[in-house]
């Protein structure tokens, strides 16, 4: 079996696959054009979120049997098209849950207490004590949109901080500990903080738009560690400028790498370059699951 690793995964996973006599080529900076040229040689490709596997790549992939996405969202892969051609698409859905939940908590704290802005100010040699008064999370209402693995993990942690947790999901969710499931309208109207944990789909694209933001509480703070594109970034920019939204923390963006930097001209916006799953532990778990799957599929053996 020949595997092309297009985005970086743990060295241990690569070593394990090689020990199982899988030929593993690592090209974790491969460009879209290069991938088109070489993909035909491989039985399997491994991607994370950087590499896009769209129709032209799938058409060029004569021998491909499986695309493994190390991580959750498969929106960088044309899944239906691949499956129609008999190519399996697998992912590692649970491997990054704790990491993304913890980043979300970090952002809730950082939106409540302006530690990022204060650090930047101190770096300039300033001592702006009065400027950096924050708010407490304790007693505030957190609205979670998307109550799957990560949303649920955020809920338990936020409840432990004394937050009142409201959840909304497009599917019916059974009783969830620490969470009151409500309608989207109720969540928007009551939440001091809103965090997104849903996939990017036709339905969720620009779900958080000007009209939705207008239905939120004044001075709401928003976290997106799910997918860029769920928030209409222009609408968010306008709402921060008017003061309707008091702060936003963004790990994901409509276009990645980020090209339009205007959101980051606003001091109320903090963010990171899609690092939700970038922890030592999640990387190891993702790698192990990817290796397990491909070793199980390697019928050639040693
Ligand atoms: P999950 O499938 O367990 O949960 C997603 C939930 O969203 C489901 O309960 C689903 O019913 C709900 N949902 C779908 N469409 C909805 C809609 N229109 N309105 C309301 N709810 C809707 O997924 P998860 O593992 O919890 O991951 C959640 C998100 O986090 C995904 O978008 C995933 O891609 C993203 N993610 C980001 C990072 C990162 O690096 N920032 C890492 C891992 C996952």
Please name the defining characteristics of this protein.
Rossmann fold, elongated, 2 domains, binds nicotinamide-adenine-dinucleotide, 35% helix, alpha/beta, 17% strand, 7-stranded parallel β-sheet
The count of DSSP E runs of length 2 or more, i.e. the number of strands, is: 12
**Remind me, CATH topology of the largest domain?**
Rossmann fold
Strand adjacency order, main sheet = 8-7-6-9-10-11-12
Shape: elongated
Please count the helical segments.
11
Small molecules bound in the structure, each named once: nicotinamide-adenine-dinucleotide
Order of helices and strands: EHEHEHEHEHHEHEEHEHEHEEH
Taking all residues together, what is the mean pLDDT? 97
Short structural summary:
With 302 residues, the protein is of the alpha/beta class. The chain contains 11 helices and 12 strands.
Write up this protein.
- The structure is a single chain.
- Helix 5 packs across helix 7.
- The longest helix has 18 residues.
- The chain has eleven helices and twelve strands.
- It is of the alpha/beta class and 302 residues long.
- The mean pLDDT is 97.
- It has two domains: 109 residues, Rossmann fold (3-Layer(aba) Sandwich); 175 residues, Rossmann fold, CATH 3.40.50.720.
- Strands 8-7-6-9-10-11-12 form a seven-stranded parallel beta sheet, sandwiched between helices.
- It binds nicotinamide-adenine-dinucleotide (NAD).
- The site of nicotinamide-adenine-dinucleotide has 31 residues, from helix 5 and helix 7.
- The site of nicotinamide-adenine-dinucleotide (NAD) has 31 residues, from helix 5 and helix 7.
């Amino acid at each position: 079996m020949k595997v092309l690793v297009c985005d970086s995964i743990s060295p241990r996973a690569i070593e394990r696959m090689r020990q199982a006599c899988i030929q593993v080529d690592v090209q974790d900076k491969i460009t879209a054009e290069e991938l088109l040229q070489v993909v035909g040689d491989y039985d399997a490709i491994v991607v994370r979120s950087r590499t896009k596997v769209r129709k032209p790549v799938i058409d060029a992939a004569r021998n491909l049997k499986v695309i493994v996405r190390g991580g959750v969202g498969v929106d960088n892969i044309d899944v239906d098209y691949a499956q129609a051609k008999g190519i399996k698409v697998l992912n590692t859905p649970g491997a990054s849950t704790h990491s993304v939940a913890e980043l979300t908590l970090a952002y809730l704290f950082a939106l409540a207490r302006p530690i990022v802005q204060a650090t930047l100010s101190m770096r300039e040699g300033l001592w702006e004590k009065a400027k950096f008064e924050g708010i407490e999370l304790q007693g505030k209402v957190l609205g979670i949109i998307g109550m799957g693995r990560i949303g649920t993990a955020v809920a338990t942690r936020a409840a432990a901080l004394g937050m009142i947790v409201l959840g909304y999901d497009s599917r019916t969710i059974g009783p969830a500990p620490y969470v009151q499931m409500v309608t989207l309208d109720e969540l928007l109207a009551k939440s001091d903080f809103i965090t997104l944990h849903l996939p990017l789909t036709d339905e969720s694209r620009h779900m958080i738009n000007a009209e939705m933001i207008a239905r939120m509480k004044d001075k709401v703070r928003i976290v997106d560690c799910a997918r860029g594109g769920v928030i209409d970034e222009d609408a968010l920019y306008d709402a921060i400028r008017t003061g309707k939204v008091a702060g936003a923390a963004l790990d994901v963006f409509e276009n990645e790498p980020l090209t339009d930097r205007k959101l980051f001209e606003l001091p109320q916006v903090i963010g990171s370059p899609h690092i939700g799953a970038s922890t030592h532990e999640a990387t190891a778990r993702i790698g192990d699951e990817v290796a397990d799957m491909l070793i199980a599929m390697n019928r050639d053996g040693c």
